[in-house]
Amino acid sequence: MADCIFCKIAGGAIPAVKIYEDELVFAFLDIGPINPGHVLVIPREHHESASTIPETTAGRMFRVGARIGIALKRLDAYDAYNLHLADGTAAGQVVMHAHLHVIPRGVNDQFHWNWRQIAYADDAAKTAMAEEIQKHLHLD
What we know:
Mean pLDDT: 95
CATH class: Alpha Beta
CATH superfamily: HIT-like
Number of strands: 5
CATH topology: HIT family, subunit A
Largest sheet: 5 strands, antiparallel
Oligomer: single chain
């Protein structure tokens, strides 16, 4: 897509610090990292949503992301990593080109996800939600 910053990065029109690339994905350092070493893995093809990424490409994104996470752990500065993909503006997606964050984490990095947790009213409500999800789940 002509206006997409990530398409321009993958195509070489905008410089980035490349970590990995192949025919399906491109990985580069995030310019606003949560921790040093924060990497973005993107599909080379433009996809706004993870739901439109071909399965082979999506699988490659997560495989590359996990391998980058392992490499980050080998640096001795980090104990773990998060893989994070926000799909849609309500989920926090800012650049409308699907991308997987690989965020290195240390025990004392002082970064905290601001998750809130809510409880289901009861087991019947939990079961009803599961049934609704299953009814709308299409994996073909």
